[in-house]
Amino acid sequence: MKEDFLRPPRTAAEWAADALRVIGILGVIAAAILLQPTDAGIAALALPALMLPRMLGMRAWFDAAAGAIVLAAAWSNVFDLYAAIWWWDLALHFACTAVLAVITAEILTRTGVAAITARTPPRTPLVLVPMIALALSAVWEMIEWFGSVYISDQIHVGYQDTIGDMVLGGLGGLVAGGMLALMDVRRVPDRTQAAAEPVVSDRRG
């Protein structure tokens, strides 16, 4: 993970993903200076999701797409786009949950908890990634409830809103699971790195 995180960008997509990380960090600083503390906190919540794809050595196109989606989700809260555009909340619950489910699946694979993203039958991500997405959606809604009760009454929660958000999150997880069943989102190692690594047989069924 350390090698992947410190690896210099080489392609346009890798530069774009790193640029989004810089924007995310600068956005937190700007929000802390110019906006409310809650806005800075919301912007800061996006930082782990911005950093993890690089640390996990995920493909540059996914890294850049994840960064753009996560930043959009965070700053839409700051600029009240969820209230201004009726479908925006649903669209970002779909896209952001899909991205976070893929990242979580890779973490679970790397830590040996469950092999989801590598050397598994295609049915494995099709089943497990939607379940991960639904779990993440539940956590997301708990955080929204906590924020509405203890931080700001401007965070709107309700039964229909919660169920709708979780449905879209689950659908996003289903699409993410289908994507992982068809392709590998991990970066292809450099030739020198691949030569240094031991060969592992592929057990995909």
Percentage beta strand = under 5%
Q: Please estimate the helix content.
A: over 70%
Instruction: Give the H and E element order.
Output: HHHHHHHHHH
- DSSP helix count? 10
Task: List low-pLDDT spans.
Answer: 192-205
Q: Number of folding domains?
A: 2
Give the class from helix and strand content and strand pairing. mainly alpha
The major pleated sheet works out as: none
Output mean pLDDT: 86
Principal-axes shape call = globular
Report Rg: 18 Å
Q: In a few lines, what is going on in this structure?
A:
This protein has 205 residues and is an all-alpha fold. The protein contains ten helices and no strands.
Tags for this entry?
205 residues, mainly alpha, 2 domains
Layout of helices and strands:
Elements: H1 2-6, H2 12-34, H3 37-45, H4 47-55, H5 60-78, H6 81-84, H7 88-110, H8 123-150, H9 159-182, H10 191-196
Describe the protein:
The chain is mainly α. It has 2 domains: 1-79; 82-187, no CATH class. It has helices spanning 2-6, 12-34, 37-45, 47-55, 60-78, 81-84, 88-110, 123-150, 159-182, 191-196. The two termini are 28 Å apart. Residues 192-205 have low confidence and may be disordered.
